[in-house]
Amino acid sequence: MKQAPMTGRIELRQVTKVYRRGTDQEVRALDAVDVKIDPGSSVAVTGPSGAGKSTMLHLIGAMDRPDSGEVEVDGERLELMRDRQLDDYRRRIGFVFQRFHLLPALTALDNVLAPVITDRRRAKAARARATDLLRLVGLRDRAASLPSQLSGGQMQRVAIARALIGAPRLLLADEPTGNLDSDTGKEILELLLSLCESENMTLVMVTHNDEVAAACQRTIVLRDGRITSDTRGSGG
Ligand SMILES: Nc1ncnc2c1ncn2[C@@H]1O[C@H](COP(=O)(O)OP(=O)(O)OP(=O)(O)O)[C@@H](O)[C@H]1O
């Protein structure tokens, strides 16, 4: 059966995630969280360390499963999916991390291509798309560079191009500006927001930075696994 295209609508209903430390200690990383995220919107998730921000992102990205509650993306319940469906789902979303996670031995172009396993017939089209994406993130002439030859901002641009190779409708970013100086961080933020608009993607971004959060259309604040504030700002 052909998958319906994703639009990036997210809904969490009474989502709880509990981590166990040792035999008797429990941490409620998320505690009965309800949230709906509109397709095509940009949402910052912020709050103190340990509040549950990354946990929320991991559940939306199907990198982890909730203990209870429902995580629905485009009408599909992630916690009901089998492993193969989850693999397929993960391939249809983009991830950007604080530490870039580029493969050091591969060029920028090959890093962008890394998520797509392709046969020879499609290799040419995939390379053309990866080249287009490098152009889109402003690295047209750095395709042959290794990560060690790039600045932090350039490495994050490669990581963003890699996240887009599968044409995702949903981009999840965990502190994407956290390893960058403030000017470079601003450039990366602007790039993410403009891509979100031009590629029609939903962006959910964990950040500690208030300025970064303010640039998004909406800011969700978590504390001790609960949403304590949910505001729509002027961003976007
Ligand atoms: N794999 C794990 N095992 C045990 N506890 C965990 C695990 N992952 C997260 N936690 C705990 O769950 C809580 C929420 O963690 P999470 O990483 O979601 O917070 P965060 O808001 O992203 O924090 P930070 O801003 O420091 O990255 C924390 O108390 C954390 O210690």
TrEMBL record:
Cross-referenced InterPro entries, in alphabetical order?
Answer: AAA+_ATPase (IPR003593), ABC_transporter-like_ATP-bd (IPR003439), ABC_transporter-like_CS (IPR017871), ABC_transpr_LolD-like (IPR015854), MacB-like_ATP-bd (IPR017911), P-loop_NTPase (IPR027417)
Which Gene Ontology MF annotations are present? Answer: ATP binding; ATP hydrolysis activity; transmembrane transporter activity
Residue ranges of domain ABC transporter in the record: 10-235
Q: Which UniProt keywords apply?
A: ATP-binding, Nucleotide-binding, Transport
Which cellular component terms (GO) are annotated to the entry? membrane protein complex; plasma membrane
The record, for Pfam families, names: ABC_tran (PF00005)
Spell out the SUPFAM superfamilies in the cross-references.
Answer: P-loop containing nucleoside triphosphate hydrolases
Protein name according to UniProt: ABC transporter ATP-binding protein
